[in-house]
Automatic annotation (TrEMBL):
Bias (Basic residues): 140-149
Region named Disordered: 110-149
Keywords linked to the UniProt accession: Membrane, Transmembrane, Transmembrane helix
Species this chain originates from: Hominisplanchenecus faecis
UniProt protein name: Uncharacterized protein
Transmembrane segments: 34-54, 61-77, 83-102
């Protein structure tokens, strides 16, 4: 597995957890007045979103980008009209879809893996060649012993 892909997934998991904390806290603050309850709900959202983002990397990318875009557009429009939510939702879907278009696939370090495979192949060939030579030498010694007897 490419080490950079794992690092990228872990970094994204941390970003998703932070996003989950903020979103969970803000949503629960609207519903409840208790700050400790809001922090607890935010922590639960952070853990859930972080785990989902790590487990389902591409879905996590879509989800986090869509949620962030929804709240950014809603904040920028700063109105409570009916059209704010559909516009924010469309922008969120567009941002989530653009993630799939802009995502780089996990790059294999093909040169390094090819070199490693070649080294391993060379070692295996040398080992099998040595084994064949040793077997041939044993056969020669066995024939000589039989000829002497």
């Amino acid at each position: 597995m490419n080490i950079f892909q794992g690092f990228r997934k872990l970094l994204f998991c941390v970003i998703a957890a932070c996003t989950g904390m903020v979103v969970g806290y803000q949503l629960s603050r609207v519903l409840f007045a208790n700050v400790r309850l809001c922090l607890g709900i935010g922590a639960v959202c952070a853990v859930i979103l972080g785990i989902l983002a790590f487990r389902f990397y591409r879905s996590g990318l879509f989800l986090v980008c869509a949620v962030l875009m929804f709240f950014v557009i809603k904040t920028l429009l700063h109105r409570e009209d009916w059209w704010v939510y559909p516009v924010s939702s469309l922008a969120a879907l567009a941002a989530g879809y653009s993630v799939f278009l802009l995502e780089k696939p996990a790059e294999n370090i093909s040169e390094t893996s090819d070199v490693t495979e070649e080294k391993g192949k060379d070692k295996r060939e040398k080992k099998s060649h040595r084994k064949r030579e040793a077997d041939e030498q044993k056969e020669r010694h066995a024939r000589r012993r039989q000829e002497r007897s």
